[in-house]
């Protein structure tokens, strides 16, 4: 990689790191190519960008940003996952993959100005995702309207039941009489 490519990579990373909601740092040493592809697929589903970048380049990209506090974590074989929207979904993808692959080790995450250790990332992964929270809120909003609609429809349903019972009784009387 020549100097121009390195500068482009650092600038590209700086731009991506400006738009993050969470950044996860992991050690991927020992994973096979197939396992790394599986990890990339899991992260892609969670709208997370997974990259392996030289440590010196990522450290340069972190200079002067809020993420500068995690610069020390970039040593050895390091991968970075940048969550664009849903931090919980990213944490779930990383933790689920780590459960099935011992060689993938989460080191640290940086979420909303806080550094999270591996245990805290596991706790984060147990929280409901944005989609789940939205579904729950929508359910709470719709519940009163559903109950109101049921109350409004109840008298009409009862009337239909009474009319049907009368028709059935008349049909039964005609059949026997």
Short description:
It contains six helices and five strands; from the N terminus they run αβαβαβαββαα. The chain is of the alpha+beta class and 177 residues long. It has two domains: 3-127, Alpha-Beta Plaits; 128-177.
Per-chain topology:
Layout: H1 3-18, E1 22-27, H2 33-45, E2 48-52, H3 55-62, E3 79-83, H4 87-100, E4 105-111, E5 114-117, H5 118-125, H6 130-176
Antiparallel strand pairs: 1-3, 1-4, 2-3, 4-5
Give your account of this protein's structure.
The protein is α+β, with helices and mostly antiparallel strands and about 180 residues long. It has 2 domains: about 5-125, Ribosomal protein L10, N-terminal RNA-binding domain (Alpha-Beta Plaits), CATH 3.30.70.1730; about 130-175. Helix content is about 60%, strand content about 15%. The chain contains 6 helices and 5 strands. It has a 5-stranded antiparallel beta sheet with strand order 2-3-1-4-5. β4 and β5 (about 115) form a beta hairpin. α1 (about 5-20) crosses α3 and α4 packs across α5 (about 120-125). The longest helix is centred in the last third of the chain and has 47 residues, at about 130-175. The protein starts with a helix and ends with a helix. About 25% of the residues are buried. The mean pLDDT is about 85.
